[in-house]
Amino acid sequence: MKRVLTLFMMLTAVIVLAACGTSKEKTAEKDETAADQEKIIIGIDDKFAPMGFRDDKNDIVGFDIDLARAAAEHMGVEAEFQPIDWKTKEAELLSGRIDLIWNGYTITDERKEKVLFTKPYLENSQVVITKADSKITKLSDLAGQEVGIQSLSSAADALNGNPIHKEVKKITEFADNVLALSDLKTGRVDAVVIDAVVAEYYMTQEPDTFKLLEESLAPEQYGIGVKPGNEALLEKLQAALDKMNEDGTAADISTKWFGEDKVLK
Protein backbone atom coordinates (compact mmCIF):
# COMPACT_ATOMS: atom_id res chain seq x y z
CA MET A 1 0.00 0.00 0.00
CA LYS A 2 2.81 2.39 0.92
CA ARG A 3 4.51 1.63 -2.40
CA VAL A 4 1.34 2.44 -4.33
CA LEU A 5 0.92 5.68 -2.38
CA THR A 6 4.54 6.65 -3.05
CA LEU A 7 4.17 5.99 -6.76
CA PHE A 8 0.95 8.03 -6.82
CA MET A 9 2.65 11.00 -5.13
CA MET A 10 5.61 10.84 -7.51
CA LEU A 11 3.29 10.75 -10.51
CA THR A 12 1.34 13.72 -9.19
CA ALA A 13 4.55 15.72 -8.71
CA VAL A 14 5.65 14.98 -12.27
CA ILE A 15 2.29 16.15 -13.63
CA VAL A 16 2.42 19.38 -11.59
CA LEU A 17 5.99 20.15 -12.69
CA ALA A 18 5.09 19.47 -16.31
CA ALA A 19 2.10 21.80 -16.07
CA CYS A 20 4.22 24.54 -14.51
CA GLY A 21 6.84 24.12 -17.19
CA THR A 22 4.22 24.39 -19.92
CA SER A 23 2.74 27.49 -18.29
CA LYS A 24 6.15 29.17 -18.07
CA GLU A 25 6.89 28.29 -21.67
CA LYS A 26 3.58 29.83 -22.80
CA THR A 27 4.26 32.98 -20.77
CA ALA A 28 7.76 33.30 -22.20
CA GLU A 29 6.40 32.70 -25.68
CA LYS A 30 3.76 35.42 -25.15
CA ASP A 31 6.35 37.93 -23.92
CA GLU A 32 8.65 37.14 -26.82
CA THR A 33 5.78 37.60 -29.28
CA ALA A 34 4.92 40.97 -27.77
CA ALA A 35 8.51 42.11 -27.99
CA ASP A 36 9.08 40.84 -31.52
CA GLN A 37 5.75 41.68 -33.20
CA GLU A 38 6.17 43.17 -36.67
CA LYS A 39 3.19 45.55 -36.54
CA ILE A 40 1.56 47.61 -33.80
CA ILE A 41 -2.05 48.73 -34.10
CA ILE A 42 -2.57 52.19 -32.64
CA GLY A 43 -6.02 53.32 -31.54
CA ILE A 44 -6.73 56.98 -32.28
CA ASP A 45 -9.49 59.58 -32.35
CA ASP A 46 -9.20 60.79 -35.95
CA LYS A 47 -10.94 64.08 -35.13
CA PHE A 48 -8.45 65.30 -32.56
CA ALA A 49 -6.41 67.96 -34.33
CA PRO A 50 -3.52 68.60 -34.21
CA MET A 51 -2.66 65.32 -32.46
CA GLY A 52 -4.38 62.96 -34.92
CA PHE A 53 -6.92 63.90 -37.59
CA ARG A 54 -7.78 63.64 -41.28
CA ASP A 55 -6.50 66.25 -43.72
CA ASP A 56 -8.18 67.50 -46.90
CA LYS A 57 -7.13 64.29 -48.66
CA ASN A 58 -8.64 62.17 -45.86
CA ASP A 59 -5.17 61.04 -44.82
CA ILE A 60 -4.54 60.59 -41.10
CA VAL A 61 -1.99 63.19 -39.98
CA GLY A 62 -0.91 64.98 -36.81
CA PHE A 63 1.74 65.36 -34.14
CA ASP A 64 1.01 62.02 -32.49
CA ILE A 65 0.82 60.32 -35.87
CA ASP A 66 4.28 61.55 -36.86
CA LEU A 67 5.64 60.70 -33.42
CA ALA A 68 4.18 57.20 -33.55
CA ARG A 69 5.54 56.54 -37.04
CA ALA A 70 9.00 57.67 -35.96
CA ALA A 71 8.85 55.50 -32.83
CA ALA A 72 7.73 52.50 -34.87
CA GLU A 73 10.70 53.02 -37.20
CA HIS A 74 13.06 53.09 -34.22
CA MET A 75 11.42 49.88 -32.97
CA GLY A 76 11.67 48.19 -36.35
CA VAL A 77 7.92 47.66 -36.65
CA GLU A 78 5.08 48.92 -38.82
CA ALA A 79 2.55 51.37 -37.35
CA GLU A 80 -1.09 50.88 -38.30
CA PHE A 81 -3.60 53.49 -37.16
CA GLN A 82 -7.08 52.36 -36.18
CA PRO A 83 -9.73 55.06 -35.62
CA ILE A 84 -11.85 54.06 -32.62
CA ASP A 85 -14.78 55.33 -30.61
CA TRP A 86 -12.95 57.26 -27.89
CA LYS A 87 -15.56 56.22 -25.33
CA THR A 88 -14.45 52.59 -25.71
CA LYS A 89 -10.69 53.14 -25.95
CA GLU A 90 -9.77 51.08 -22.88
CA ALA A 91 -12.10 48.26 -23.94
CA GLU A 92 -10.46 48.22 -27.37
CA LEU A 93 -7.03 47.96 -25.75
CA LEU A 94 -7.90 45.33 -23.17
CA SER A 95 -9.62 43.17 -25.79
CA GLY A 96 -6.45 43.15 -27.89
CA ARG A 97 -8.04 44.82 -30.91
CA ILE A 98 -5.43 47.57 -30.60
CA ASP A 99 -1.94 47.51 -29.08
CA LEU A 100 -1.68 51.16 -28.01
CA ILE A 101 -3.85 54.16 -27.18
CA TRP A 102 -1.90 57.07 -28.61
CA ASN A 103 -3.71 60.30 -29.37
CA GLY A 104 -3.61 62.96 -26.68
CA TYR A 105 -4.32 60.34 -24.03
CA THR A 106 -4.26 61.99 -20.61
CA ILE A 107 -2.62 60.14 -17.73
CA THR A 108 -5.02 59.88 -14.77
CA ASP A 109 -5.03 57.79 -11.59
CA GLU A 110 -8.24 56.08 -12.72
CA ARG A 111 -6.72 55.10 -16.06
CA LYS A 112 -3.55 53.86 -14.37
CA GLU A 113 -5.67 51.17 -12.74
CA LYS A 114 -6.60 49.81 -16.18
CA VAL A 115 -3.67 50.66 -18.45
CA LEU A 116 0.13 50.74 -18.46
CA PHE A 117 1.55 54.15 -19.37
CA THR A 118 4.79 55.36 -20.88
CA LYS A 119 6.46 58.32 -19.24
CA PRO A 120 4.61 61.61 -19.99
CA TYR A 121 5.69 63.13 -23.28
CA LEU A 122 3.63 66.34 -23.51
CA GLU A 123 2.13 68.89 -21.13
CA ASN A 124 -1.49 69.92 -21.63
CA SER A 125 -4.37 71.52 -19.76
CA GLN A 126 -8.13 71.69 -20.04
CA VAL A 127 -9.37 75.11 -21.12
CA VAL A 128 -12.63 76.81 -22.01
CA ILE A 129 -13.30 77.99 -25.55
CA THR A 130 -16.24 80.20 -26.51
CA LYS A 131 -17.41 82.19 -29.51
CA ALA A 132 -15.39 85.32 -30.14
CA ASP A 133 -18.34 87.60 -29.37
CA SER A 134 -19.39 85.73 -26.20
CA LYS A 135 -19.86 87.65 -22.96
CA ILE A 136 -18.16 84.77 -21.13
CA THR A 137 -14.72 86.02 -20.10
CA LYS A 138 -13.91 84.01 -16.94
CA LEU A 139 -14.76 80.64 -15.40
CA SER A 140 -17.38 82.10 -13.07
CA ASP A 141 -19.29 83.29 -16.15
CA LEU A 142 -20.12 79.66 -16.94
CA ALA A 143 -22.81 79.81 -14.25
CA GLY A 144 -26.18 79.32 -15.90
CA GLN A 145 -24.59 78.42 -19.25
CA GLU A 146 -24.67 75.25 -21.38
CA VAL A 147 -21.24 73.64 -21.68
CA GLY A 148 -20.08 70.98 -24.14
CA ILE A 149 -17.45 68.30 -23.52
CA GLN A 150 -16.16 65.22 -25.32
CA SER A 151 -17.72 62.15 -23.76
CA LEU A 152 -15.49 60.17 -21.34
CA SER A 153 -12.57 62.55 -21.86
CA SER A 154 -10.40 64.24 -19.26
CA ALA A 155 -12.41 67.41 -19.98
CA ALA A 156 -15.25 65.88 -17.97
CA ASP A 157 -12.90 65.19 -15.04
CA ALA A 158 -11.56 68.75 -15.18
CA LEU A 159 -15.00 70.35 -15.24
CA ASN A 160 -16.38 68.10 -12.50
CA GLY A 161 -13.33 68.85 -10.39
CA ASN A 162 -14.03 72.58 -10.43
CA PRO A 163 -16.74 74.13 -8.21
CA ILE A 164 -18.23 75.92 -11.21
CA HIS A 165 -19.69 72.64 -12.49
CA LYS A 166 -22.43 72.90 -9.85
CA GLU A 167 -23.54 76.22 -11.32
CA VAL A 168 -23.49 75.20 -14.98
CA LYS A 169 -27.01 75.00 -16.41
CA LYS A 170 -26.38 71.94 -18.57
CA ILE A 171 -23.46 69.74 -19.64
CA THR A 172 -23.78 68.21 -23.10
CA GLU A 173 -21.52 65.32 -24.11
CA PHE A 174 -20.31 64.84 -27.69
CA ALA A 175 -18.63 61.94 -29.44
CA ASP A 176 -15.74 64.21 -30.45
CA ASN A 177 -14.50 67.78 -30.22
CA VAL A 178 -15.43 68.60 -33.82
CA LEU A 179 -19.10 68.08 -33.03
CA ALA A 180 -18.77 70.07 -29.80
CA LEU A 181 -17.19 73.03 -31.60
CA SER A 182 -19.79 72.83 -34.35
CA ASP A 183 -22.57 73.21 -31.78
CA LEU A 184 -20.63 76.07 -30.19
CA LYS A 185 -20.53 77.93 -33.50
CA THR A 186 -24.26 77.50 -34.02
CA GLY A 187 -25.08 78.54 -30.47
CA ARG A 188 -26.43 75.22 -29.21
CA VAL A 189 -23.86 75.35 -26.40
CA ASP A 190 -22.29 78.45 -24.86
CA ALA A 191 -18.80 77.09 -24.22
CA VAL A 192 -16.71 73.95 -24.65
CA VAL A 193 -14.15 72.48 -22.24
CA ILE A 194 -11.36 71.13 -24.41
CA ASP A 195 -7.65 70.25 -24.49
CA ALA A 196 -5.48 73.34 -24.78
CA VAL A 197 -3.48 71.90 -27.69
CA VAL A 198 -6.72 71.30 -29.61
CA ALA A 199 -8.19 74.70 -28.75
CA GLU A 200 -5.03 76.50 -29.83
CA TYR A 201 -5.07 74.65 -33.16
CA TYR A 202 -8.63 75.71 -33.92
CA MET A 203 -7.83 79.26 -32.83
CA THR A 204 -5.18 79.42 -35.54
CA GLN A 205 -7.61 77.96 -38.10
CA GLU A 206 -10.54 80.24 -37.21
CA PRO A 207 -9.13 83.18 -35.21
CA ASP A 208 -12.25 85.32 -35.68
CA THR A 209 -14.63 82.57 -34.58
CA PHE A 210 -13.35 81.51 -31.17
CA LYS A 211 -11.68 82.92 -28.07
CA LEU A 212 -10.01 81.23 -25.10
CA LEU A 213 -10.51 82.09 -21.45
CA GLU A 214 -7.27 82.94 -19.69
CA GLU A 215 -8.12 80.68 -16.76
CA SER A 216 -7.61 76.95 -17.23
CA LEU A 217 -9.38 74.14 -15.44
CA ALA A 218 -6.66 71.56 -14.89
CA PRO A 219 -3.07 70.85 -15.91
CA GLU A 220 -2.38 67.36 -17.25
CA GLN A 221 0.11 65.24 -19.17
CA TYR A 222 -0.21 62.96 -22.17
CA GLY A 223 1.09 59.41 -22.18
CA ILE A 224 0.74 56.30 -24.35
CA GLY A 225 -1.46 53.49 -23.08
CA VAL A 226 -0.31 49.86 -23.28
CA LYS A 227 -2.28 46.74 -22.35
CA PRO A 228 -1.40 45.35 -18.90
CA GLY A 229 0.77 42.26 -19.27
CA ASN A 230 2.49 43.65 -22.35
CA GLU A 231 5.49 45.06 -20.48
CA ALA A 232 7.79 43.95 -23.29
CA LEU A 233 6.07 46.30 -25.74
CA LEU A 234 6.04 49.11 -23.18
CA GLU A 235 9.78 48.76 -22.56
CA LYS A 236 10.57 48.71 -26.27
CA LEU A 237 8.35 51.73 -26.94
CA GLN A 238 9.81 53.76 -24.09
CA ALA A 239 13.32 53.01 -25.30
CA ALA A 240 12.34 54.33 -28.75
CA LEU A 241 10.85 57.51 -27.26
CA ASP A 242 13.96 58.10 -25.16
CA LYS A 243 16.15 57.65 -28.22
CA MET A 244 14.01 60.12 -30.20
CA ASN A 245 14.50 62.70 -27.45
CA GLU A 246 18.24 62.17 -27.59
CA ASP A 247 18.65 62.34 -31.36
CA GLY A 248 16.31 65.33 -31.85
CA THR A 249 13.58 63.48 -33.77
CA ALA A 250 10.88 64.34 -31.21
CA ALA A 251 11.95 68.00 -31.12
CA ASP A 252 11.75 68.26 -34.92
CA ILE A 253 8.24 66.79 -34.97
CA SER A 254 7.13 69.14 -32.20
CA THR A 255 8.53 72.16 -34.03
CA LYS A 256 6.70 71.08 -37.18
CA TRP A 257 3.32 71.04 -35.43
CA PHE A 258 3.69 73.56 -32.60
CA GLY A 259 6.43 75.89 -33.77
CA GLU A 260 8.61 74.94 -30.79
CA ASP A 261 9.96 71.95 -28.88
CA LYS A 262 7.26 71.05 -26.35
CA VAL A 263 8.20 67.42 -25.81
CA LEU A 264 8.98 66.43 -22.22
CA LYS A 265 12.46 65.04 -21.73
UniProtKB/TrEMBL annotation:
Keywords carried by this UniProt record: Lipoprotein, Palmitate, Signal
Domain of life: Bacteria
Signal sequence annotation: 1-18
Biological source species: Lysinibacillus capsici
Statement: the UniProt record of this protein carries the keyword Lipid biosynthesis: no
Name of the featured protein: Amino acid ABC transporter substrate-binding protein
Domain Solute-binding protein family 3/N-terminal residue range list: 39-261
Family, as annotated: Belongs to the bacterial solute-binding protein 3 family.
Predominant subcellular localization, coarse grouping: other
Domain (Ionotropic glutamate receptor C-terminal) ranges: 39-260
Pfam families xref list: SBP_bac_3
UniProt keyword Transcription regulation, yes or no: no
Compartment annotation: Cell envelope
